[in-house]
Design brief:
- This protein has 268 residues and is α+β, with helices and mostly antiparallel strands.
- It has 2 domains: 108 residues, 2-Layer Sandwich (Ribosomal Protein S5, domain 2); 141 residues, Alpha-Beta Plaits, CATH 3.30.70.890.
- It is globular and about 60 Å long.
- The mean pLDDT is 93.
């Protein structure tokens, strides 16, 4: 039995869960049936990493429930089978996801004590577009190969910025990378536009705050219209109020999260 946010999983959702749970059952040499319940504290908005957090949680919870203790790299590989970004959510912090390292694909947290001071304001915006649609569109864009090539350079720059704890450079690079991501989804065969009017309004407000008010804030986007505002801790309260007042959207304040961990509070 698989339950997601209080509702039975669809066939596709169940298949994704089994892709993660089955390898862990194999490690435990068990074939028992199970009940799995997963719930997000936040359910509104697209491009907020719901799948990433879910499959990071499912992989760790399954390993604990079945009494197996794979190393974090192996568990990250398994979480990736549910959602690629789950490999990074599992290990937490600033992390790098290796597409292929010694024949394996997993994530590893980077040492980034100074960079952990990054503060994040999040604007959740809803969308009916599925992430899978964006994946299909992006690889068919004429600019996809260029993006992959440029990302290698951006990655090296980002790793240096994280190592230095340079929050301004981290924000600048994340903003450029976000624009590159959406450029390829918009130039696929279907011209998939993931942005909403509120997205554009927030981006315009961020640029005005940065250029006119000299607030060190940069936007970033995942595969959806929701916006992340990346800044220093001392600016996050004021810029959140500014966005709520001028764009009339809800803003959540956050920080860089840690690795997945076991809780004592249960869902059933």
């Amino acid at each position: 039995m698989i339950e997601i946010n209080g509702k039975p999983a669809t066939e596709l959702e169940a298949a994704r869960v089994l892709a993660v749970v089955s390898p862990i059952r194999n490690l435990a040499k068990m074939k028992d049936h199970f009940k799995l319940s997963t719930a997000n504290s936040l359910t509104q908005g697209k491009g907020l990493g719901f799948s990433a957090s879910a499959f990071a949680s499912i992989s760790l919870a399954s390993a604990i429930a079945l009494g197996v203790k794979p190393d974090l790299e192996r568990l990250s590989e398994i979480a990736r089978l549910g959602a690629g970004s789950a490999s990074r959510s599992l290990v937490g912090g600033f992390s790098i996801w290796y597409a292929k390292k010694n024949g394996r694909s997993y994530a590893k947290q980077l040492p980034a004590s100074s960079a952990q001071k990054l503060a994040i304001a999040i604007v959740p915006i809803n969308s009916q577009v599925k992430t899978e649609e964006a994946h299909k569109e992006s690889v068919r864009s004429p600019f996809f190969r260029v993006r992959v090539r440029e990302t290698k350079t951006t990655l090296r720059q980002m790793l240096r910025a994280i190592q230095k704890g340079d929050i301004d450079e981290i924000g600048r690079l994340a903003e450029l990378e976000s624009l590159s991501l959406h450029a390829v989804t918009m130039t696929g065969p279907e011209g998939l536009v993931l942005l909403a009017p509120e997205t554009i309004h927030v981006i315009q407000q961020v640029r005005m705050m940065r250029e006119t008010d000299h607030v060190p804030v940069w936007f970033s986007l995942d595969t959806g219209p929701s916006v992340y505002l990346n800044t220093h801790a001392e600016f996050v309260d004021a810029l959140s109020r500014d966005i709520e007042r001028n764009v009339n959207v809800k803003v959540l304040k956050s920080r860089v999260g840690g690795a997945a961990y076991r809780m004592t509070e249960h869902l059933f």
